[in-house]
Write a structure and sequence with these properties.
β5 and β6 form a beta hairpin. The strands form 6 sheets. This protein has an 11-stranded mixed sheet, sandwiched between helices. It is built from 14 helices and 25 strands. It folds into 3 domains: 261 residues, 2-Layer Sandwich (BirA Bifunctional Protein, domain 2); 99 residues, Anticodon-binding domain (Rossmann fold), CATH 3.40.50; 69 residues, 2-Layer Sandwich (Translation Initiation Factor IF3). It starts with 12 loop residues before the first helix and ends with a strand. The chain is an alpha+beta fold. α2 packs across α6.
Length: 479
């Protein structure tokens, strides 16, 4: 049975998502349209996402820095494709300190412009390369249709920016981030399988030479772009005059890249794993991995139960993120409900009988009800929980992979494509134009999500034009 206040997925998937965000206390609405307040439980989840990504980013040689929120409007206008791509989403400050500004300031929608300006100051010789920086920041994009985490006017993210001597180095960097940082994190920490691939020219980042992305499938069969990595070529280097003296002592433009993921990863996690009972959270990211609930009647039973819990939990420090819910004013049933909605992976219950028998009841969140509950000896509890957390982590990935594969169809006709995108991804041979893409989007609301990096080889006939093609693409409706 669905939890009270949570709309069943089968009835209204969009409202179910909003109910999870609300009831799991992840975020709330701000007085400013399209903005959200990230609540402590939601922010703790973001901190764990941030930590996992930050480790990977630093392991690939990048350093964190910070760049200003405000960008001179003229900077954003230097790269024509870039300004055209972001123009509808830009917020502009024209007045500050009680006076009209000499030059309006843009609230950053992304930071290629200001960082390009700084790279031009810092880079002079091939010896200065590569420059590998990342920043954790907020950005503002004036979105018309918003939804918490998935698409908000202001959101949190990381954006990496790098500068290289050659196109090959920039391309290597772009793909390294896609594979070793983003795909690795999303699959291993979020338990979410992804398709990795190249965006078509129609879908690429404004001003980029090439854009790569990872695409995940949500439980309603729609795609969610979970991360992007852009080879910017020399476009921004030319716009901002990022010039260096090469090894032949000749001036040359640098090759740059940029890449980012945002708080929309929380939205992906919710939609990929949660159920009608509430949030389901992969253990490696869960703010609380284990909640311990004391079970007792009356004050005479409380001391023995709490002492047993202290003894059991005492050895868990540094091993699990644990919460002992010892609130006397609430019933065990209320606590069970609250922690289920908030997605805590494992619940441990200890009562007077468990104190006598040296046992504990252990329930796993990913399998609600009696099927996911068992009795465990207290002496073996730590080892059991450690194994259980890994089992849940892998189980969520396996379940998401089965779902994705079951909802990805190979199609050979346009009619099959239109049918497939109603419930998932359509994999098809493609030799169409940008105009063909526009037509399909208008008629089906589906877009080419990626040209997968892994291609089957051989050739086939384009699903729309019938022309021979050597590449396959993935179509889907997307968030």
């Amino acid at each position: 049975m669905p939890k009270e206040g949570i709309t069943p997925r089968a009835k209204d998937y969009a409202q179910w998502y909003l109910d999870i965000v609300d009831k799991a206390e992840l975020a709330d609405y701000s007085p400013v349209r399209g903005c959200m307040v990230i609540r402590p439980h939601g922010y703790a989840l973001w901190e764990n996402i941030q930590a996992g990504l930050d480790r990977r980013i630093k392991a690939t040689g990048h350093q964190n820095a910070y760049f200003p929120l405000f960008i001179p409007q003229s900077f954003l206008q230097k790269e024509a494709q870039h300004v055209e791509g972001f123009a509808p989403e830009v917020a502009v400050v024209t007045r500050a300190g009680g006076e009209e500004l000499t030059e309006p300031l843009v609230v950053r929608p992304t930071s290629e412009a200001i960082i390009g300006h700084m790279f031009a100051k810092w880079v002079h010789s091939w010896r200065d390369l590569p420059v590998l920086v990342n920043q954790w920041a907020n950005v503002v994009r004036w979105e018309m249709r918003t939804r918490p985490f998935l698409r908000t006017t202001e959101f949190l993210w990381q954006e990496g920016h790098t500068c290289h001597a050659t196109e090959e180095e920039a391309e290597e960097e772009t793909l390294k981030i896609l594979n070793e940082v983003y795909a690795d994190f999303v699959e291993k920490e979020m338990s979410l399988p992804v398709y990795k691939g190249l965006k078509t020219d129609k879908e690429k980042f404004a001003g980029a030479l090439r854009t790569y992305s990872i695409e995940a499938m949500m439980q309603d069969g729609r795609a969610l772009q979970a991360g992007t990595s852009h080879n910017l070529g020399q476009n921004f280097a030319r716009a901002f005059e990022i010039v260096y003296q090469n090894r032949e002592n000749q001036p040359d433009f640098c090759w740059t890249s940029s890449w980012g993921v945002s708080t929309r990863l929380e939205g992906a996690l919710i939609m990929a794993h949660s159920d009608d009972e509430g949030l389901v959270c992969p253990p490696r990211l869960a703010p609380i991995q284990v909640v311990v609930v004391p079970i007792y009647k009356g004050e005479e039973q409380r001391p023995g139960v709490m002492e047993a819990i202290r003894r059991v939990v005492g050895g868990w420090e540094g091993r699990f993120r644990v919460k002992v819910d010892d609130r006397d004013q609430l019933t065990p049933g209320f606590k069970f409900n609250e922690w289920e909605v908030k997605g805590v992976p494992v619940r441990v219950e200890i009562g007077p009988r468990d104190v006598e028998n040296g046992t504990a009841a252990v329930a796993r969140r990913d399998i609600p009800g009696r099927e996911g509950k068992q009795l465990v000896q207290q002496a073996a509890l730590a080892g059991h929980i450690a194994a259980l957390l890994e089992d849940i982590q892998q189980g969520l990935y396996d379940r998401a992979l089965r779902f994705r594969d079951a909802h990805t169809r190979d199609v050979s006709s346009y009619e099959e494509l239109k049918e497939a995108v109603e419930t998932g991804f359509a994999r098809a041979w493609w030799a169409g134009t940008a105009e063909d893409e526009e037509r399909i989007q208008a008629e089906t609301k589906a877009t080419i999500r990626v040209i997968p990096l892994e291609q089957p080889g051989g050739s086939g006939r384009c699903v729309l034009t019938g022309r021979e093609s050597t590449r396959q693409v993935l179509f889907a409706r997307a968030y």
